[in-house]
């Protein structure tokens, strides 16, 4: 997740007003004064040099792409990445035909028969009974379903495992919550064969990239797809650059339509965008974190992290609110495809990650422990699979 955002734009999950909502306004934070940009730049340079000097070998990291949530500057180039283990993955071995759903479809819950409420009377009309409308059907398929034989992960640097290895500024898909070998990932828990697991995520991706990643999944003929995307839509240099809620919804619909048409029987797990305001709360007291953030990570949230000025407090809250709106979109749109799409119910957004769950390189991306937490959260909130 580079310049001004959860992920830097290059190669390679936002709260929204929905079921989970924001947990109140962001507190003003610790006291402090706005530091001069010259000092910040020098501290960032020193911190960066110190990190790079202590770098160890990463046996499973891949690529050098940086994104808005993970880079330390524009000097780092992007390298193409593919596959769960850092190497190009073969096509899935799933049958060429689309996989038809086999699990039972959840039925809508109907209200008690003949339940009515009176309409308030007016001076000229008699009160008339109005039948209560049935609530919308749940977006939670019941299952259990047969475990998928193949899967693809769509998303951004979080799904690429960015900065989760021992070398900074690198994708590390072996530690990806969705497809990784070195964590108890979804793929591992489902027992999907390694040659049938695909990590199509791209560091720096925004929701506008979902359709292209979905087309790859269609070509791979997978039975199961995870989607975690949206942090970079809120993490930008300026608020004016954040993806509008309307565009975010349109782009999500386009991506899901690709899957719906190309893989009629696919199961899709849509994961809520993490609470990036929580990440600011938990790490703002770390001097190294502030130095790294000053290089340009998610400036809509992280600029002047110690400032308690009202303008900065309100700016952070607006970003948090935008994430809330994104998550509401994910819930609503996924709910329209209820037999095959499952929203995590805001589980990832609601989780209160701690400092120990974050990358020691950027204090923003999930580290190895955080990736494992994501895997467990999404498995519990996702589909129910047969043993």
Write a compact overview of the structure shown.
By secondary structure, the chain is of the alpha/beta class. The chain has helices spanning 37-53, 186-190, 210-220, 231-234, 245-262, 276-283, 287-293, 299-302, 310-335, 347-350, 368-381, and strands spanning 116-118, 129-131, 151-155, 197-199, 224-228, 267-270, 341-343.
Largest sheet entry: 5 strands, parallel
Helix and strand run = HEEEHEHEHHEHHHHEHH
Low-pLDDT runs: 1-46, 48-139
Structural class label = alpha/beta
Strand content: 5-15%
The N- and C-terminal alpha carbons lie at a distance of: 35 Å
Overall description:
With 387 residues, the chain is of the alpha/beta class. It contains eleven helices and seven strands. The strands form two sheets. Strands 4-3-5-6-7 form a five-stranded parallel β-sheet. Helix 1 crosses helix 7 (287-293) and helix 3 (210-220) runs parallel beside helix 5 (245-262).
Features:
387 residues; single chain; alpha/beta
Layout of secondary structure:
Blueprint: H1 37-53, E1 116-118, E2 129-131, E3 151-155, H2 186-190, E4 197-199, H3 210-220, E5 224-228, H4 231-234, H5 245-262, E6 267-270, H6 276-283, H7 287-293, H8 299-302, H9 310-335, E7 341-343, H10 347-350, H11 368-381
Parallel strand pairs: 3-4, 3-5, 5-6, 6-7
Antiparallel strand pairs: 1-2
Helix pairs in contact: 1-7, 3-5, 5-9
């Amino acid at each position: 997740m580079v310049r001004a955002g959860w992920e830097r734009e290059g190669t390679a999950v936002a709260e929204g007003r929905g079921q989970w909502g924001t947990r109140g306004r962001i507190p003003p934070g610790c006291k402090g004064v706005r530091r001069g940009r010259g000092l910040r730049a020098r501290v960032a340079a020193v911190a960066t040099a110190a990190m790079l000097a202590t770098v160890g070998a990463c046996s499973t990291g891949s690529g050098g792409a940086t994104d808005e949530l993970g880079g330390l500057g524009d000097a780092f180039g992007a390298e193409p990445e593919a596959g769960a283990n850092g190497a190009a993955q073969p096509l899935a071995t799933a049958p060429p035909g689309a996989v038809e759903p086999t699990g039972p479809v959840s039925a809508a819950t109907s209200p008690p028969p003949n339940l009515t409420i009176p309409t308030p009377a007016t001076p000229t009309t008699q009160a008339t009974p109005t039948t209560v409308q049935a609530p919308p059907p749940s977006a939670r398929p019941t299952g259990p379903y047969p475990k998928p034989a193949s899967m693809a992960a769509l998303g951004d640097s979080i799904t690429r495992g960015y900065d989760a290895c021992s070398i900074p500024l690198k994708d590390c898909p072996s530690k990806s919550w969705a497809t990784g070998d070195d964590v108890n990932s979804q793929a591992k828990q489902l027992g999907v064969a390694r040659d049938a697991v695909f990590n199509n995520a791209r560091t720096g991706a925004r929701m506008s990239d979902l359709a292209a990643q979905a087309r790859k999944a269609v070509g791979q003929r997978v039975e199961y797809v995870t989607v975690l995307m949206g942090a970079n839509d809120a993490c930008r240099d300026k608020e004016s650059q954040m993806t509008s809620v309307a565009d975010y919804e349109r782009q999500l619909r386009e991506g899901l339509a690709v899957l719906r048409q190309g893989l009629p029987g696919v199961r899709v797990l849509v994961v809520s965008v993490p609470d990036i305001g929580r990440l600011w709360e938990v790490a703002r007291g770390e001097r190294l974190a502030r130095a790294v953030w000053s290089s340009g990570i998610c400036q809509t949230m992280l600029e002047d992290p110690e400032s308690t000025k009202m303008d900065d407090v309100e700016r952070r809250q607006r970003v948090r609110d935008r994430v809330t709106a994104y998550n509401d979109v994910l819930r609503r749109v996924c709910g329209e495809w209820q037999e095959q799409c499952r929203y995590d119910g805001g589980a990832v957004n609601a989780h209160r990650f701690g400092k120990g769950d974050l990358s020691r390189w950027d204090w923003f991306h999930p580290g190895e422990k955080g990736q494992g937490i994501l895997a467990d959260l999404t498995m519990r909130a996702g589909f129910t699979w047969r043993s």
